[in-house]
């Protein structure tokens, strides 16, 4: 079974800053994502502010 174990020291993607430390893809000490790319979406019909957007690559730690 595939498990995402890419979040180790040195694997922070400095192109994707993120403060969601509860995400399994977060890189711990640094406020960056460990993925090569992420998907951002929205749960709103007509998004008007940043709270309307979501990281669809979020995975529970
Ligand atoms: S997958 Fe999304 S929420 Fe998770 S660490 Fe990366 S950018 Fe942050």
Structural summary, described in words:
It contains no helices and 4 strands. It is an all-beta fold. It has one domain. It is elongated. Mean pLDDT is 88; it is low at 1-10. Iron/sulfur cluster is lined by residues 16, 18, 20, 23, 25-26, 33, 35, 38, 55, 57-58.
Main sheet summary = 2 strands, antiparallel
> How far is the N terminus from the C terminus?
17 Å
The average pLDDT score comes to 88
> Which H/E pattern describes the elements?
EEEE
Q: Compute the number of helices.
A: 0
Calculate Rg over CA atoms.
13 Å
Q: What is the domain tally?
A: 1
Q: Approximately how much beta-strand content do the residues carry?
A: 15-25%
By DSSP, the count of extended strands is 4
Spans of at least 5 consecutive residues with low confidence: 1-10
Question: Bound small molecules, which ones?
Answer: iron/sulfur cluster
Q: Which class best fits the helix and strand makeup?
A: mainly beta
- What is the overall silhouette? elongated
How much helix is in the residues? Answer: under 10%
Q: Which strand order do you get reading across the main beta sheet? A: 1-2
């Amino acid at each position: 079974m595939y498990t995402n174990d890419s979040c180790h020291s040195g694997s922070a993607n400095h192109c994707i800053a993120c403060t969601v430390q509860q995400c399994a893809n977060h890189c711990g000490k640094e406020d960056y994502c460990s993925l090569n790319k992420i998907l951002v979406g929205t749960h709103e019909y007509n998004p008007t502010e940043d709270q309307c957007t979501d990281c669809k690559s979020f995975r529970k730690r």
